Amino acid sequence: MDIAFLQANWMLVAVAAASGAMLLWSFVGTRVAGFEVADTLKATRLYNDDALILDVREPSEFASGHIPRAKHIPLGQLSERLHELDKFKGKPVLVNCRSGQRSARACGQLKKAGFETVYNLAGGIMAWERAGLPIEKK
């Protein structure tokens, strides 16, 4: 590749490098953290295979609608309530929040606590609802 081309098109090169890095992180990033990201198709399979569904949203968010069978532990209480989940350490765990940010932090906590197979629901409950999957209100 010609140095003159790179100098003349440095912004194009920078954008290409940044997009390549983001693409690489999407494949490697969650594996480095020790958990995987599940899209709604994978999440449905996990649900049907009786994975633990863990909702880490706040109580008002949970009450407004949640995945059926979901166990509710707000993220702020997870560290002191991990003992409630001990029997699920060898079982797949699908964690969700509103959009996938809080649940990613919860996934990290679960992996550090010894949970073997942890998945973060990509896009959170919003993606679940957009896919037309069932929601329960209790």
Helix count?
7
Beta-strand percentage range: 5-15%
The level 1 CATH classification of the largest domain is Alpha Beta
Distance between the termini: 62 Å
State the helical fraction: 40-55%
The fold-level CATH name of the largest domain is Oxidized Rhodanese, domain 1
CATH architecture descriptor text of the largest domain: 3-Layer(aba) Sandwich
- What is the count of structural domains? 2
Summarize the structure.
The protein has 2 domains: 1-33; 35-130, Oxidized Rhodanese, domain 1.
Q: Which labels suit this protein?
A:
five-stranded parallel sheet; alpha/beta; 5 strands; 138 residues; Oxidized Rhodanese, domain 1
Report on this structure.
Strand 4, helix 6 (101-112) and strand 5 form a beta-alpha-beta unit. It contains 7 helices and 5 strands; from the N terminus they run ααβαβαβαβαβα. The model has no long low-confidence stretch (mean pLDDT 89). Strands 1-5-4-2-3 form a 5-stranded parallel β-sheet. With 138 residues, the protein is of the alpha/beta class. It has helices spanning 3-8, 10-33, 40-48, 59-63, 78-81, 101-112, 124-130, and strands at residues 36-38, 52-55, 71-72, 93-96, 118-121. It is elongated, with a radius of gyration of 19 Å. It has 2 domains: 1-33; 35-130, 3-Layer(aba) Sandwich (Oxidized Rhodanese, domain 1), CATH 3.40.250.10.
